[in-house]
Amino acid sequence: MSMKPCYETTCGKLYHGHVVDVLGQLRDRSVNCCVTSPPYWGLRDYGVPPQIWGGDPDCRHDFNTEKIGTEIGKGNWSRACNGRGDVRGDVADFREPVRAVAERGFCQKCGAWLGSHGLEPTPELYIEHEVLIFRQVRRVLCDDGTCWINLGDSYAASRSYRVSDNLHPVVGAQRNLANAKPPSGFKQKDLMGIPWRVAFALQADGWYLRSALPWVKRTAMPESVKDRPTSALEYVFMLTKSQHYRCDMKSIKVQASPDTHRRYARGRSGNHKWKDGGPGNQTIAKSMSHMIPGVTPKSALPGSGVKANSSFHASIGDLVGERNFRNTDLFFQSLEQPFGMIVCGDEIVGIDAVPGSCPDAHFAAFSPALVEPCIMAGCPAGGVVLDPFVGSGTTAIVAHKYDRKFIGIDLSKTYLDGIAIPRIEAATAQLKLFA
């Protein structure tokens, strides 16, 4: 790779630049796992320079650009913050106007688009760019690699973004993107289903869509809506580049509940509705091989000659040690402490996804609890974890914590130098003290 990292240690590397350009210079099959959260569509402007997407690379572009947003000066600061004053003091004390104006537009010659990812004028263009990015991710991913993508949704005709004053996002200052008309195919106030549209587009492009893990944003941004629930649910999609891949479920097993074996025993009985295999021939009635034995494992069927069989243990309700991670574990664990994997009964079904606390005011810091199961299951020790939108550096920090290397990419040099690198250095230094 000819591009030099802007930060490099024995733990990994960070690159500054357009995500498509940087990914294009990474070697084929050079990373084991990708864990990332791209910019959500129509949510905020991170204050990065607009980038060129698609078109003819040899074209002398003539962009027909439009400006979106406004300038927020000292005189209208109170109005911009809706009178709440919910901004950092050092930002509120500015003397010059904060430029909250972004540019975007199409080349009149080749059709290339100039703008920031997430601020595309249509969801179709946003999805097209997501496919382009993750096509490169699939190329650099090992054949047995996994990709975990966190995405949030958007509402039609509510396409606003929060402006960012370089390092410090201006919380509360929102500006509508272009006009208020719903995108083609959507009605006013429609929930657009952007995450699933992206997931299906990636599936159509060749990815295997293997799972969707819901998680609750415990500290979700308050909303002023009065005719629907506040949005606090997001998804982590698990995708793979091949049918057979590495996913170490043993590394993220969770404690089973007393009811586990009673239910598993019922599932294996001869009169169970799925005794023939059930939908997709995947019923639990066929095997208990994914269970890790605990106090008294019930691995034998009645009539096997083993006294401590499933029927015996069903009657006494003994415990097993652990059971598989469920795609909803993250969801339920976010509802009660301690935070971490979300358990429904005794199965992991989602991720505890309290948004990460970031004192440097990154808008959407990853929660370590959201990243950990993805890295532990998807990347072997000593392997490489990729985050094409590394932001505040949480993926890199968690990767190092569990003895994985990292590659991070971000377009914001301010975020890299001001947040990600200091956090990574502080975290790695702290881990060395306990090594």
Mean pLDDT figure: 75
Strand content: 15-25%
Count of the separate structural domains: 2
The CATH superfamily of the largest domain bears the name: Vaccinia Virus protein VP39
The helix fraction, in percent, is: 10-25%
What global shape is seen?
Answer: globular
Number of helices: 11
Order of helices and strands: EEHEEEHHEEHEEEHEEEHHEHEEHEHEH
Describe the strand arrangement of the main beta sheet, using strand numbers. 1-2-18-17-3-8-12-11
Poorly predicted runs of 5 or more residues: 70-99, 160-179, 292-298, 355-363
CATH architecture of the largest domain: 3-Layer(aba) Sandwich
From the 3D structure, determine the CATH topology of the largest domain: Rossmann fold
* Biggest sheet layout: 8 strands, mixed
Rounded to the nearest angstrom, the distance between the terminal CA atoms is 32 Å
Structural classification? alpha+beta
So what's the CATH class of the largest domain? Alpha Beta
Radius of gyration: 24 Å
Number of E-state strands? 18
Description:
There is one protein chain. By secondary structure, this protein is an alpha+beta fold. The protein has 2 domains: about 5-250 and about 325-435, Rossmann fold (3-Layer(aba) Sandwich); about 255-325, no CATH class. It is about 25% helix and about 25% strand. The protein has 11 helices and 18 strands. The chain has helices at about 20-25, 75-80, 90, 125-140, 195-205, 260-265, 310-315, 330-335, 370-380, 395-400, 415-435, and strands at about 5-10, 10-15, 30-35, 50-55, 65-70, 100-105, 115, 140-150, 160-165, 170-175, 210-215, 235-240, 255, 320-325, 340-345, 345-350, 385, 405-410. It has an 8-stranded mixed β-sheet with strand order 1-2-18-17-3-8-12-11, with helices on both faces. Strands 4-7-6-5 form a 4-stranded antiparallel β-sheet, with no helix packed on it. Strand 15 and strand 16 (about 345-350) form a beta hairpin. Helix 6 packs across helix 7 (about 310-315) and helix 9 (about 370-380) packs across helix 10 (about 395-400). It is globular. It starts with 6 loop residues before the first strand and ends with a helix. Residues about 70-100, about 160-180, about 290-300 and about 355-365 have low confidence and may be disordered.
